[in-house]
Amino acid sequence: MPRYALVIGIAKYDNFTNLPKAVNDAEKIAQMLREHGRFDVQALPGKLIEGENRWQVTPDKKLTGKELGQTLRTFLLDKAEGSEALIYFAGHGFEALSLTGEPEGFLATSDCNKVDGQNAIAFDDLNTLIAKSKLSSLVVLLDCCYAGSFLERSFIKPGFSVFNSKQNYSLITASRAIERAREDAEGGIFTKAIIKGLAEDKADEATGEINVNDLMSFVSRELKQSGQEPIYMGGGRSIPLVWYPPKNLVVIRQVLDECPYRGLEAFDKQHAKFF
Q1: Residue 109: count of CB within 10 angstroms of its CB
Q2: Which of 189, 153, 154, 157 has the alpha carbon at shortest distance from 174?
Q3: Helix residue ranges per DSSP H, the chain
Q4: pTM score, two decimals?
């Protein structure tokens, strides 16, 4: 079955501080999924690497709300229909008050307004798109501040019932709705934990597989007492993310379907000499 990944890393913003490390994080995830996850990876904002037939996340481009919104719609409702899908986002996340004074969560785009969320991707809108999609499975990884709002506020509502028909899904956020997602010298600590959790030494020795449950268990331990708490919500089977060559091969011996009895074989050979 086809596997499609949309990997987003936004470095340039008009109304937020720039995040050059977000691009590095996204490119590491894209490479991991491409090489070990059997995913067809679409990168945003991206540039085509000539001669390699792949797209790379680029730090020198902006990603507008209109472009990201249209890409998410096409990816979820068209490109990945009937297939296994994964969405990764690295960038700013924020909350803004609605006209009724209620906090709403957003994925920040390059041209969005942090006051009212204009041109940003509302978590509730992403929820609606996912509800309309017809996917075999879905994994969402959000490395941004206040990402927990996606689960704690958008999905723990009556709208969460849309996932009753989606047997296989996993949604993981870097932090709770009230927390910021932290960086170290290399990049986001959530993405750093993901990369470590998907490394070959974490794979099942018999199958070479690392699935979502394996990853979440490792990330939770890795980020314990880090100041941010990853949030997980899932249903159905634990979706495999990457594979490596198994370390302990299971040998299946072939059993020949023939009778082991050879009692008359010697007699038959002697008897044949007389004819």
Answers
A1: 25
A2: 189
A3: 20-36, 65-74, 123-132, 149, 189-197, 212-222, 265-271
A4: 0.85
